[in-house]
Design brief:
It is built from five helices and 25 strands. By secondary structure, the protein is an alpha/beta fold. It has two domains: 103 residues, 3-Layer(aba) Sandwich (Rossmann fold); 120 residues, 3 Solenoid (UDP N-Acetylglucosamine Acyltransferase, domain 1), CATH 2.160.10.10. An eight-stranded mixed sheet has the order 7-10-13-16-19-22-24-25, with helices on one face. A six-stranded mixed sheet has the order 3-4-2-1-5-6. The longest helix has 13 residues. Bound molecules: coenzyme A (COA). The site of coenzyme A (COA) has 13 residues, from β24.
Length: 237
């Protein structure tokens, strides 16, 4: 564990600790830099403390946020891991520990003032968020995406690079919309779904399904966010 030096910077910039020192963590680090935040370090369960990721230190494992009151007082936190279940778990644990989440939005993002964004969200370059859109906490909206008017994206979803969500699309908790995928207006995609890259969703997709193609068809169950389904599948093996 690396002790955090808690001297005020004098700049008034928010200090940020990122949970996850992998690819998404480094993307979050870039967002910190371009938005003028002070990047304090990463928490990572699989990397040795005192090592560095692109020059930024690993401070310790994720639960440092629960164990270190000084760190909680000095910093804001963002969960930057690909697994939606893990993101949901740590958003809850950060809140329970009384720590503050931060939302990171690239300056090039066009976001309607009437859009409603939850905490702990990341939005990457050149994405457009249209009026009345709602994005739940812990979502990750990659670059060049388009979240249409009155679209509702529930917590811990990923909208990958270049995806386009038509007017009033509804997306359930923890779903992953692949790169370049498109949804027709008024579509409902359930929770825990995975929509393949470049797919076109023209009909509703039930929860916990993988759907691919144009038009998108259900390929199989998506077990990753549904413990009950995963257990049933194990028993049937
Ligand atoms: C949907 C996805 C998860 C399926 O992966 P998988 O379960 O390993 O599936 P497979 O590669 O075994 O393919 C199964 C079938 O679905 C088809 N398929 C897979 N992905 C597809 C896609 N995006 N569009 C159309 N068909 C697709 C395959 O051709 C194959 O068809 P076949 O059985 O007729 O040969 C994956 O292909 C995908 O699109 N992931 C999203 C990637 C992404 O957008 N990442 C964001 C950038 S990081």
């Amino acid at each position: 564990m690396v002790p955090l030096e808690r001297q005020p910077t004098g700049s008034g910039a928010e200090r940020v600790v990122i949970l996850g020192g992998g690819a998404i963590g480094t993307m979050a680090a870039d967002l910190c830099t371009v938005t003028g935040r002070e990047l304090v370090g990463f928490l990572d369960n699989n990397k040795e403390p005192q090592t560095h990721v692109y020059g930024t230190p690993i401070l310790g494992p994720f639960d440092l946020v629960e164990r270190d009151a000084g760190l909680r007082a000095a910093c804001h936190f963002i969960v930057a891991v690909s697994d939606a279940g893990l993101r949901r778990e740590w958003l809850g644990r950060i809140a329970a520990a009384g720590a503050r989440l931060i939302t990171l939005i690239h300056p090039s993002v066009s976001c309607s003032p009437s859009a409603c964004l939850g905490e702990g969200i990341m939005i990457f370059p050149f994405t457009t968020i249209y009026p009345g859109a709602q994005i739940g906490e812990g979502c990750l909206i990659e670059g060049h995406a388009c979240v249409g008017p009155e679209v509702s994206v529930m917590p811990v979803c990923v909208i990958a690079e270049g995806a386009i969500l038509g007017h009033r699309t509804r997306i359930g908790t923890g779903s992953f919309i692949g790169a370049g995928a498109v949804s027709r207006p008024n579509i409902t995609i359930g929770e825990g779904c995975l929509i393949g890259a470049n797919s076109t969703v023209i009909r509703d997709i039930p929860s916990f399904k993988v759907a691919v193609g144009s038009p998108a068809r259900v390929l199989r169950d998506n077990l990753s966010l549904n413990p009950a389904l995963a257990e049933r599948s194990r028993q049937n093996r």
